Amino acid sequence: MAGSKKKKITKAERLKQLQEEEEKRQKEEEEARVKYAKEEMEKLEIQRVEKEEWRKLEAKDLERRNEELEELYLLEWCFPKAEKLKRDNRLLSQWKHYIQCDGSPDPSISQEINTFISLWKEETNETLEAVIAKSKLVLNLIGKLKLILLETPPYDLQEKNIMQYQGSILELQELLHLKFNIATELLLRQASTLADVDSGNMEKVIRDENVTVYVWANLKKNPRYKSVTFSETQVGFEIPRILATSAIALRLLHTRYDHVTPLGPVPTASQEPTSTVTRLVKDEVKSIEAAVSEDLQEEGKEQDNESNSVHDEETKAEEQGNTEEQKNSVREEPKATQCELEMKSLSETISAAQLLLLENAQEKPRFFEDNEVDLCQFTTLGGVYHLDILELPPQCKPVKGWMIVEILKEGLQKYIYPPETTEDFEAENAFPPIEVMLEVHENVIFFEDPMVARWDAEGKRWKTDGISNVSYKSEDRLITFSLETFGPVTLIQDAHVNMPYQSWELRPLDMNKVLLTVTTVFTEIQIQIKENFCMLASIKLNNKKYSSILEEKWMTPVSFILALKEAGLNIFPTRHSHFYVATNYKLPLVEMKAYRQMALLSSAFAFSWSKWNAVCDSTKVVFQVREYLPKEEPIHNPNWTLLMLSGDRAQSLRINENSEAFSEALKEETEFHSTLYHMVKDFASKEAMRYIRYSSCQFTDSVCHMLLSTRLLSYS
């Protein structure tokens, strides 16, 4: 028992033990302190070395900045060259039209278009078929005028020209609709001779690629005949008893175009000086020109020094000979200088115009009332359905081999439904809403169920009130709704349904040919760009191939953008879009520089979306890049380089797309550069640089225009 007891620790031993523990603790603390101090010293040394290296790289970048900017400035002369070619093409198309002598007017010449309008006004007794045939020419003229307004840069458009073109567009639109009304009246006068044997009423459907006309005349006035459905279609109406017993006609004029919505404003050169960012472009161009002129002055000084060292003993005859040579060179210099100044001025103006495409509006255009459609947020699709209840005109009567008809002086009259006063009618619900069933245009894509809007003629706006019981069958492409009063109606969709984008990629296909892929929540759109043309390569909806009539059709960039918008494939933000979409704001000047330089490199380099672009601030853009020579076999897991571009610096980042956090640390063994071109030049092959140098100016300009229009860096 006594042996198993623990030995009692004495006081001295306890003190010794505590002392040893204290010494051990102090030793560990000292070792930790020394280790921490050593690590801090090493860390500070690394930071010092990195800062020193950073300063050296910055100094090196600053030293060659003027040289790099000068080279980029010369490369970007492709933009004014492309603009001069576009001007030449516009003049050439006018000349071709002139020598074609096909009888159609040149819509840009007021005398010709006015003569055309006057002569068409004088034509009478045109049938619906004749008007529809003539409408192809009219729509072509309207389309040409709209393209002139959209394709001509703001600095080449004068206010008087804009007023002239828009005035001609409105006159043609109004006259075309008037002709449809007159032709409808002509048809309705003969309704009794065209009556259906079974129903006793007249029905007619005329189809065309741009217009479809449905006309029904109520000749029998049978109160039980309330359901009107046009043969071989699913278009129809459910009319109330009061209309079933009235001498009326129903007309549905479905135009694939929209001549109801007012024309939008056209940017002019007068708007440019008001922009702060536009002035920044001019300052930027001036700084580059200053850098170029400094280099030229230095070369000039060197030449002067060399010439001063030449022997002074020159003969009088040699001096006279030199004088003659100088006189000849003086005559030639003004021409060269004038051409150079013209190109410099054009380059500056183009930069300012490109910057205008990237400027965000500071405020919404105006306040929108309840039920009013905001056309900055929504867009009309599938054209306009002109729904009309018409008074049946007096019918033709055969008399002794003649057809007698009473022609009303006031022409075709609308039947007011519901009437302005309803006191004479006993039933409270004598004028219920009319149920309408319409076919949705097959070439238009709705990513969500469309909304129905009616035209308010007094307020000159689209509104959504007075419409109820809307039902959409996407598989049958049928929409049914009830309408209180007849008039123009249209289908609307959120213009930003495909924004922001989920990802994008720009990849070379061949010399002067690239493929732009934009992926959104609903679709994947692939666009091919070559020379000065664009084409829809493919569309995928919910990962399934979708067939569109726009595929395999080459168009100019402006025409192509219009066609995509009209088909419901809108990936082109406006200056008001940031009010309706969560954007990744970037300074317009930085964004513009990125697009211009990406376009310059697009023949040999692929660019792609990066998640880090949303993390860096508004003065920088981040994207992935890699060399991709045309006809190169696709790589399953390509090795992308992450680049960051600010207004005056490009650099490779150490991080990649799979890194855990964002860092602006420079990639090992890389340097700063003033331009994206010189950044990729460090790791590009000779073949890639050859592709870039021999790229067509029109191709580069088209790629740049598409990048500016889609704004991939701000809306993804």
Automatic annotation (TrEMBL):
Transmembrane annotation, as ranges: none
Biased composition (Basic and acidic residues): 10-32, 298-338
GO MF annotation list: beta-tubulin binding; microtubule binding
The protein's name: Dynein axonemal intermediate chain 7
Highest taxon of source: Eukaryota
CASC1 C-terminal domain ranges (all copies): 460-627
InterPro entries in UniProt: CASC1_C, IC97/Casc1_N, IC97/Dnai7-like
Annotated source species: Catagonus wagneri (Chacoan peccary)
Region of interest: Disordered: 1-32, 294-338
GO CC term (a single one): axoneme
Family to which this protein belongs: Belongs to the DNAI7 family.
The IC97/Casc1 N-terminal domain, residue ranges: 24-224
